[in-house]
Structures are given as structure tokens and as C-alpha cells.
Design a protein that fits this description.
With 404 residues, the chain is an alpha/beta fold. Helix content is 45%, strand content 14%.
Amino acid sequence: MLGGKDKKRLLESFSRTTDDFFSLKEFETLLDSNKKIKIKYGVDVTSPFLHIGHAVNLWMMRDLQDLGHKVIFLIGDFTTQIGDPTGRSNTRPIIPQEEIDKNAEEFIRQAKMVLRFDDPNLLEIRRNSEWFSKYKLSDFLKLLSLVTHARLISRDMFQKRMSNQEDIYLHEMIYPILQGYDSYVLESDLTIIGSDQLFNEMLGRFYQQKFGQNPQVIITTKITQGIDGKAKQSKSLDNYIGLGHSSRDKFGRCMKIPDNLIVDYLNIYTKVSSDDISKIKINVSSDPMKYKKFLAGEIIKRYHSEATALSELEWFENTFSKKIIPEDIPVLELDEFTWVAMDLVKKYFNSSKSSSEVRRLFQQGAVSVNSKKIASFDTAIKLDSGDIVKVGKRTWFKIKINSH
């Protein structure tokens, strides 16, 4: 049971990132009890990446772990084969089991940047294939019989598809039922989610009540716009700051954030005090770059270290303010002296950029060799060892020609 001061401190901390409670009274009752709270954290491992928006939920869970409560890290390996239709205008492709297992490992690697995996009393890993792979059809039909078609079809994305005359497949409609049933199996007391998962987790409360359990508390968290100032953070839009990004990439992506989002990002994605943020809010418009650097430092401190944050600030200022070429740039070894510009850039990025992305870099005048811009992607370039190639604002590499 939390003392009054600890409880107040936790609720104040949660208020910074919470959108809504279902319900606050139930959450306070949980905190006031002597019960070890079971926190369900379910992941659909279709795409194995986490960004700082996802990490908002993880940090709240970490706070509870530090108070002795337990996160149940639920890998939705069975439900991933169906694919959560949340936010989708089309049906997700079914991915093979081998890829699901690989993705699950990557999810855990990134989640370890926040959650404690070092104590089995604070974290347990489960997979929903444990129960669904041997679930009887007759039992599943009983589950279905408790939920009406009208309730399922009321989901906003289904309504949107219907209005656009797009297909809804039956396996997509039953996904919320499966996710809701997970909460019953795990005896979940609490789940912390983005608001896009609310429909599914409310079904969890529904099934728990139907089967005689106390319904889980649901906390939905605030969602900001991505670093482009438009849609929420998304891998497909490349407008996110990923946990898996290097500290340098995190710093660079922070520099892209629109000025009007600096205060929101400080409030939701850092531990800077509310008093300090209030002062920054007054001054941010007078020197937004100063506060973007401060924001970048605070985010890097949280996921790496204070020393790393200081190092990345120094690198950024040397590179962009003082125009100093970094000393630690990678070396690209080549066997040939002469290269077509586009092939050279593609070789460096090793298929991580498409041909159209590379062409766009040349169109933007973003490629240079020894500070001389290369205007066209089909330009033939004669290279020597020691030549410096710059691509975009933050990528350099040094050429080394292998002697034969």
C-alpha cells in the first residue's frame, strides 16, 4: 500500500502523460490495496519497433515496477497471425511464425531500454498462443455469443471502411474479442495504452466482468504529432524518434520538431520539472533552437546517458554551427576509382534507401564530394582515398580505394 505522499507523487507524474482513466477511482483503489498489481502489456509483433510515443506507456509501467508491481509482457504471437485492424484501411498481411519470433526478440530488446527484465517478480513474458492454440471451437463460440455484431461493427475504423465501401473480413472483427480475452486469462488489473486500443481493452473489462473477475483499470495516454508536426509518430511516415535509433539520430530528429511542439515534447517525453517547462514555455519563441537542443539532450539522457547527451550536443554544434567535418565518420571501401554518383550513394546505404529516395537527394542538392555538390545522380565521379562524401545534413563517409 502506497503512502499518501508516494501516491500523490505517482498520480501527479501520471497526470502529465495520461489522457483518461477508466476509472480513476478504481486505479486509486488498486494503489491503496496491498495487492501486487498485474499490468498487462500486450504487443502485436507485426512490426518490431518502438518509438518514444510507445515509451510513454513503458515509463509509467516502469514507475509501477519500481514500486514492486508486475508487468506481464504479452507477446501476441497468435493474434499477430490475424493482424490488429487498428488504424488500418486495409487488411494486414499474415506473417510467418519465424518472423513473429524474430520480431518478438527485437521488441524485447527495445523494451529493455525502459522496463526491468532483471527480476521475475517484476516482469513475466507470456505468449497468447499458450491458450489460443489449444482453444476448443465450442468454447470460442461461447465467447462470440456474448458480444453483439452491433458492438463490434461500431469500431471507428470499421465504420470508416464501410463508408468507403471497403471490405471488412471476419477474422479482423474477432480480433478485439481475442485481445479482450487475453485480459481475462492473465487476470489483468491494469493496462496502459494509446487511445487507439481503447475499444479492444474495454472488451477485456467486459469479459472479466462476465467471468467474475474485477475489471482491469485502463489508462489511455496522450498522443502528440510526429516530428513533422502532422500525423502521430509512425514508422511508415518516418516522423518518429525510435528507441532503436542511435543517440545521434535521436538528436537529429529532435532538431526537425516544429517550434510549437517543443513544450509538448518536453512535457510528455522527458522528466523535466513542470516548473521548468512553464518557464521554457514563456521563452521558447525567442530562441527555439536553444530549447530544441535542450529537448534533444533530455531525451538522450533518458535512453542513453548524460555523457552521451553532452557528446551529441558537441558533435551537433561542431558540425552545423562551426561547419567542422566530424572525425568519426565511417569509411567506405571501394575497389574502383570511378563511380556513377547514384550507385555510390546506394552502396553506402546498402539498400536502406530506395532508388527514388536517392534520386530525391540529388534533386535537393544534398550530395557533395569534398564540398562540391553533385547536381545529377548519373554523374560519373573519379574518387581517391581520403575523399569525403556528404549526403543530406548529417551523413558523411570517407572513401578508401583498395589497392590491387
